[in-house]
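anyone else get weird line breaks when pasting these?? whatever heres mine. first is seq + tokens for prot A
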Amino acid sequence: MQWKLCIFVEILVGGAELLFDGVKKHQVTLPCQPEPWDIRNLLKWIKQNLLKERPELFLQGESVRPGILVLINEADWELMGELDYKLQDQDNVLFISTLHGG
């Protein structure tokens, strides 16, 4: 089976959206792949396709940087399996930066 999904990605608070050309809301169609899409693969896709500058301010290793909360359909991703969560069609993935300048 080929896995292709339409999901919603939102980047909010703390200026993190500036890394994405100022765009906060993205409706994306993830391409077909042989295995189901998970958050780990989504972050790689985001780095290649949505991030416009300074990926080190959003990503650390294969995950998000500390200080960035991730909600999947309004639930903390820690309750959903974090990087291993299998994305479903029409999922809403929200990244909230809790870091800010002074």
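and prot B, same format (seq, then tokens)
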Amino acid sequence: MVRQLAKRNQVTRSQSDALHAFADLRNAISHGEYRSGNPIADPRPDIVEEIRRLRDILLAAPTLVSVLRQNPIVRFSPDTPVHDVLSAIREKGYSQFPIYDDGGSYHRLLTARSVARWIAHDLADNGQLDAATVADVLRFAEPHDRAVLVPRTTTVPEALEILGTRDSGGQLPDAMIVTEHGKREQLPLLIVVAADIPALLDAVEF
């Protein structure tokens, strides 16, 4: 079970190592030789506390919203002028932007890769950037430029599994958008990207 969970990123390497070590200890106590009626191995009090601490981490894993502090979310609509996107990239340093339609529903993810493709194609045409809106830029998006929507109850181990799961084309998601219930018609509470993974791993490190 531990190996299967580790492959799905539901336990970290250190958690996996600890669980295997604790299993070896358990087997030594339960199945090892006895001397004068006593097992040859005993768990030290500090090891028992380690087991309890790991148990608490696994059974009450922290949620994304309790671990990550969200900077102001920058989202656009398909009608947003391209200039606003370029300004956000320059001023905020963001590389992923959720696009929501006028009704407040999630449309798709705009990535810096899509913007780069647009610039390359648009400049090749006449040496000028002619696109006017986000919708024009999204024509250069590819299927793997995508985000996964999840509810605010999503835990850190669950998030790590999602971020590490490739789609049918072998691509990892670019972002994870947290809404109240993971619905497209709900506005984002948090956006998780690859740069957040170290903080997520620290939150469940053992």
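btw re prot B: The longest helix spans residues 13-31. Residues 66-203 form a domain with the CBS-domain fold (CATH 3.10.580.10).
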